[in-house]
Amino acid sequence: MKVFSIAIHGGAGTLVKGMMTPELEARYKLALKIALDAGYKVLDDGKSSIEAVEIAVKLLEDSPLFNAGKGSVFTAEGTHEMDAAIMDGKSLNAGAISLITGIKNPVSLAKDVMEKSEHVFLAGEGAMQFAKELDYKFEDDHYFYDEFRYNQWQEIKDTDNFQLDHSTKKDSKFGTVGAVACDQDGNIAAATSTGGMTNKKWGRVGDSPMIGAGNYANNKTCAVSCTGSGEFFIRGVVAYDVSCLMEHKGLSLQEASEEVIHKRVLEINGDGGLIAIDAQGNITMPFNTEGMYRACKSSGGKEDISIYK
Fold first, then answer.
1. Which domain holds residue 151?
2. E strands within 131-251?
3. What is the pTM of this model?
4. Fewest CB within 10 A of the end CB: N or C in the chain?
């Protein structure tokens, strides 16, 4: 039987070690483990990589510890605008949504865009209308309210500052969530979800829902989910760049991922990290920041849950 495996992340950035209490670190690692084990069980049961990445990301969205779903940050208007994407490496089918509110699990709506519409990317009012037609339940604002997130917003509210969630110097929650998986048939998939940046204006969209920038999957090469300074990941088309280096330069998964994160992204002053997997079940999780919430598990026996380098 082929090796099957999964990797997940909960954001990268200035995870200052001194600010992280042992209790908080334990909470993060438990949240990562719950999502990792659930995704791995899907693969172990012989189900698809798409199902695995969806369930893993849903569980990360349900945790207030991460900036996605329940833990999403506040915009300048005091609302929550969430983005998500999912991609199937076998068919190259993909679904993405952006600027949605009230949806508990944005990744599931992205999957429905992929499977139940003729489109790839829906945003704003249109995406919300699509969700209503599929009878999605809309959560009220209270579900998404988190005191830490609210205080984070209050500090820069009514200013022109915005805050990339992973680059704050405080004991904070960091960024995007994502998952990549390789199933028993050797098919790979990627999913990414985020609440964006604190105090963002004008309907800003980051790399997370953009196919090729923050999320990408192709059985011929790799599946990638990114986290970091979205503007730079968009400019660098980071997720596809990893795939491209593998396809056209013959680099391995690890070589391509490290070239992108430790060289190409840094050259344009971007910071962050990514998780990536190939159709042989190999995993890599490089980052150029102080830390990245990450975990992986493979049928080959590998298992790791880490925050710092």
1. 5-308
2. 177-182, 188-194, 215-217, 223-228
3. 0.94
4. N
